[in-house]
């Protein structure tokens, strides 16, 4: 490490610089030891889980998970809780049978809760729909019958490319009900991204809509589907929900209106039981290569852990709470904590279509007030945006219904934690900082309400029944306060089962660094003397932008796909609002002209079109050369220094250190939001 760098950092944080958290100046002061906030007595007395839960789980981990699995309704009990005889290929609740949709919907209706609201849905323009469990059951049955009519069978893949409307959930549950594997693609992804996912998963049906509302205007979805499906011969039909009334292109014979096909079906549908290991869904996520990974989740173990964590982490009281995960169903957070966890627990949830600033910056607080939301689960990037807008906005609404808050997606810096606690939670709501991943399916590290104290900025402890450690490069557990890597040392019920169609990549990516029994999460971490785990950001080439995972390689390969670009290097630079922002350095082809701003805009648009707007670089700089080691590797570390306006670290392994000086003064200012 260069002297200039360590001197500069000593005022903030010493230590190795490989971990994003320690790089990120904006996260400000770290508080490795608190302040520790004890659980409020009243909460402790009534919380769903008590302090014994950790001992109970560690005394017999498998028996503990079996107990949680019994919270679900099985048509056949399992013979074995876990089969780990062929690691890293796990089977949970072997021989057990259940229907996931029945567990999420029908059983609550049968138990007399048909009139309970499952979702208070609100569209961005202010239109609303209230859906009870009985209505949800009817809609799911109709959609399941429609899928069967379209010859969708158990095991077939169905792509869902929809905005945040109730049909998204109905479609997911209809798939689960008939054993089809859903693959929800976030509506912000491009036609290309959709096409590659349709192809990789081999989807037979796409469920979409004419569009949705975003930032005050209808935005279209169908054109991207037409483009993508045109390249995916396996897709037989496109089922289209009418949401905005926009004109759509229509391919006769292929395209069908949801209202026509689903509308005419019977509300009766007999749920079939599926094996605990029957595939439930695929969710694509970025890895360190350009090709996204199809993370496969299965039925029994997944539902067990999402349901139990939702109940324990959020202290969910089905008769009293109004629960709101303010995230998109297109991400795993939405799958586990808008759909499966809350429904399995018979929660009443809020679902909102739009962004926080439309039509005004108090929109979310208005919804909390209107529906009496008691539990709010959202991401640090949103909280930092609220901080930027100012505390007067939440102060203008009655947020007294809130009793518990959650955070997910990236480390929450103590400043944001304290602001959230005070200005949203009124100083009375504990915050659950939940660490988990698309791959883990459900919460893995979190405090527990009424049980643990709270340490702002730390996700704290492995959830009961979960085994996590902080290890060094050799896999040796580290002593307190040393910085290392987070690993999971035992399989867990909601774990991914493989990468769709690529078992080798599954083994290589997650289970090879420390052997086949240790899951490598890709995050840096540190454990303090009180046993709290602090997450320090990704250690691989994955960026975290507003809680979304984007791979540097994916953006680089999009950039070099543009005719003007010869070479590209992409880094994640700390960003006060989004956590990290994407900064690209590009070398133009000999014959390409550097038209300045115009070219930069064109490249940003190109990436947006290739991958999706979230992947548009915040800044792009055109350079003559990239810093490389003698072996030809791009030195991203130095690029990150530049992107973060830091003094440069060690440049001794650089082939030509003058390259850096050339680059240094060129970084254009970050554009304002788009
Ligand atoms: C990565 C997983 C889990 C759903 C949303 C993101 C980061 C997530 C936290 C947290 C620190 C966190 C990690 C992780 N992350 N939650 N509470 N504290 N970091 O899912 O896209 O699969 O991303 O998000 O880096 O590896 P994902």
TrEMBL record:
Residues annotated to bind Mg(2+): 560, 562, 565
Keywords associated with the record: Acetylation, ATP-binding, Ligase, Magnesium, Metal-binding, Nucleotide-binding
Source organism, top-level taxon: Bacteria
Pfam family, one: AMP-binding
Record-annotated AMP-dependent synthetase/ligase domain positions: 111-492
Record-annotated AMP-binding enzyme C-terminal domain positions: 554-633
Catalytic activity: acetate + ATP + CoA = acetyl-CoA + AMP + diphosphate
Location of the region described as Disordered in the Swiss-Prot/TrEMBL record: 1-47
List of residues binding CoA: 214-217, 333, 546
Residues annotated for ATP binding in this entry: 409-411, 433-438, 523, 538, 549
GO molecular function: acetate-CoA ligase activity
Post-translational modification: Acetylated. Deacetylation by the SIR2-homolog deacetylase activates the enzyme.
Cofactor(s) required, per the database record: Mg(2+)
Modification sites for N6-acetyllysine: 633
Transmembrane segments: none
EC number: 6.2.1.1
Known function: Catalyzes the conversion of acetate into acetyl-CoA (AcCoA), an essential intermediate at the junction of anabolic and catabolic pathways. AcsA undergoes a two-step reaction. In the first half reaction, AcsA combines acetate with ATP to form acetyl-adenylate (AcAMP) intermediate. In the second half reaction, it can then transfer the acetyl group from AcAMP to the sulfhydryl group of CoA, forming the product AcCoA.
Annotated family: Belongs to the ATP-dependent AMP-binding enzyme family.
Protein name per the record: Acetyl-coenzyme A synthetase
Source organism per UniProt: Blastococcus brunescens
Lineage, highest ranks first: Bacteria, Bacillati, Actinomycetota, Actinomycetes, Geodermatophilales
Gene name of the record: acs
